[in-house]
Amino acid sequence: MMKKLLVALLVWLPTLTIAAGGGASECPQDPAPVDLRDKAQLQRGAKYYVNYCLGCHSLKYQRYGRLGEDLEIPKELVEQNLMFTGEQVGNTMNIAMPAVDAEKWFGVLPPDLSLKARVRGTDWIYNYLRSFHKDDSRPYGVNNLCFPDVGMPHVMADLQGIQDRGHETRLIDDEQKEFYIGLEVVEPGSLTPEEYDQVSADLAAFLTYVGEPVQVERQDLGWKVLLFIFIFFIFAYALKREYWKDIH
């Protein structure tokens, strides 16, 4: 009996975890158009991150010098365009905001995002950045479909504009009911929806790179290792047959 209860618990636990997300089912599930081999996309993502995110969210496992090498950005351009507070190129990408002040202003220290893509996934980051919407009940006037009751402002509202939840009324069992049908822009930003989607993809790509800078190299090395093992297996099998030929 206990064994059956344990199995049932293991089956239902993921469902309970998802349910605890509080509205995360409305989060879009669009795949992120990300290519980690596209240096231009990663460079754009680094630019957007430094200009819109690095004021609050550090990348304490990423160094400016390593970023420049991997993304093929000359040292001079890294110093001119990505470093604004007197850091050294060998420093990690930390924020200047004191933790005490951050907790006073936001209620909590904004999290480091070095491993966010590995925790949440590239697609989640992409859809999160696109899912801010108007909510007058929140302190900053916005909420997020992928992170309900998020405690941060929409820092890229000037690019995306302001979205609101679209609804439509349907007659169900002789009763008018409202249904959520997605987000719609009510105050346009400086970019079109398609252009802002590309910005979101660029940021998602950059954070995916930061989460595992050697991912592309690891994948390239993987097939070479498998090829070596295959060739080695042929010689090993031939040697085995030679050793055992007198017995068989």
Plain-language structure description:
A two-stranded antiparallel ribbon has the order 1-2. Strands 3-4 form a two-stranded antiparallel ribbon. The protein starts with a helix and ends with a helix. The chain has 248 residues and is α+β, with helices and mostly antiparallel strands. It is built from 10 helices and 6 strands; from the N terminus they run H-H-E-H-H-E-H-H-H-E-E-H-E-E-H-H. It has helices at 2-19, 39-52, 64-70, 75-81, 99-106, 116-120, 122-129, 157-160, 193-211, 215-244, and strands spanning 59-63, 92-93, 132-134, 142-144, 161-172, 175-188.
Summarize, please.
By secondary structure, this protein is an alpha+beta fold. Helix content is 48%, strand content 16%.
- Shape descriptor: extended
How would a textbook summarize the main sheet? 2 strands, antiparallel
The SSE string, one letter per element, is: HHEHHEHHHEEHEEHH
Estimate the mean pLDDT confidence: 86
Portion of residues within helices: 40-55%
Give the low-confidence spans. Answer: 13-23
Strand arrangement in the largest pleated sheet: 1-2
Number of domains: 1
Beta-strand portion reads 15-25%
The CATH first-level class comes to Mainly Alpha
For this structure, the CATH topology is Cytochrome Bc1 Complex, Chain D, domain 2
What is the radius of gyration computed over CA atoms, rounded to a whole number of angstroms?
A: 25 Å
